[in-house]
Amino acid sequence: MALLPPFIRASRASRALRNAAPHSTAAGLPADDEVLLDVPDERLGPALVAAGLGAYAPAAELMAHTREQAQWEYRDRDAIRLASFALSRPEWFEEWRAAAPRDPDVLLVSAQLAVDRAWRSPARAELLREVSPLITAAAQSDVRDPVPWRIALDHARGARAGHKYFGELWAAAVRRAPHHYGCHVAAKRYLAASWHGSHRECFDFADRAAQDAPAGSLVQALPARAAFAYLTDGCGPDVPRERLDAAADRAIALSVRFPGLDPWTAEIRNLLTYVLVRLDRRDEALVQLRLIGPYATSFPWGLLSDDPLGHFLAVREEVRSGPSGQPPWHPGNGHGGRDRPLDH
């Protein structure tokens, strides 16, 4: 049986990084060969393992629970991970869909899966048009659920929908969940693409959303995503340093509200680590790396390298080694000189 994607270990790290593992341990960090990529939390993990064995019942139970309890943030992330797994291992999902074709959870994962497939195709715009009925079906199956509207926002970006239509989708999403992180990320990506990298407007949107959200909401990390997009875009000094620092400070305040070594918050802490390192705030980056522990995530490192796990370990070692006398990366370019369309 193929290795499940959520349990990829640091087997591709360089010899130098492997040799650095004792130093990492001394700095309060796990050894390189203990670091994993995209580990699911304790709720999702058993469902993915069961799916890998061909059983859909745990996934069905998990998604039903998130819907019944209105756990929209969990539901959003779980739908993304289950659809991603179904891209490469579809048998369990096809069996689930055949058994319950009108189930709201099946419809939601089906819509996410269809958008993911279309997004990867050169004929993206045409295929996305065909996906619209699936998103509509998911939205109509439970009118409380904001997650189909997050999928619709992603769909609108891929289909290059106009601002008026996007605004209607956005209004429908925030009526259901005013502070839903996934919808806000989707909206920021759409706005960034529409504004062609106008980072001030993206920061304005992210800052307003964070100011309106509760202190423990994941939306508090949205300005850090805007900072990441700016720091990796290479479009010039359009955003004051004070604003970048404020975005990092807000994400730090969010991070301390959650326990350490937590897969649920690992992606936000990985993102924050990148931003802090780019701002040369190494001591604070090391704190976040200790809170991350063994939980590396594909975002943001997969947008900077074809080897996200190796890239994370390289950054971690650079932070652990201490100041080098110059910023670890020149502003406006990703580590290692790899330029990509980042977070939009």
Gyration radius (Cα, Å) is: 20 Å
Oligomer: single chain
Measured between the Cα atoms of the first and last residue, the distance is 34 Å
Structural class: mainly alpha
Helical coverage, percent range: 55-70%
Profile the largest sheet: 3 strands, mixed
Q: Number of helical runs?
A: 18
Q: Please tell me the overall pLDDT.
A: 88
Q: H/E series, N to C?
A: EHHEHHHHHHHHHHHHHHEHH
Features:
mainly alpha, three-stranded mixed beta sheet, 18 helices, 2% strand, disordered N terminus, disordered C terminus
Notes on the structure:
By secondary structure, the chain is mainly α. The chain has a domain at 1-34 and 198-344. The chain is built from 18 helices and three strands. The protein has a three-stranded mixed β-sheet with strand order 1-2-3. The protein starts with 7 loop residues before the first strand and ends in a 23-residue tail after the last helix. Mean pLDDT is 88; it is low at 1-8, 10-21 and 327-342.
Helix and strand layout, with pairings?
Blueprint: E1 8-9, H1 15-19, H2 21-26, E2 36-37, H3 44-52, H4 57-68, H5 72-88, H6 91-99, H7 104-119, H8 124-141, H9 147-158, H10 163-176, H11 181-194, H12 199-212, H13 222-231, H14 241-255, H15 266-278, H16 282-292, E3 295-296, H17 298-301, H18 308-321
Parallel strand pairs: 2-3
Antiparallel strand pairs: 1-2
Helix pairs in contact: 3-4, 4-5, 5-7, 7-8, 7-9, 8-9, 9-10, 9-11, 11-12, 12-13, 13-14, 13-15, 14-15, 15-16
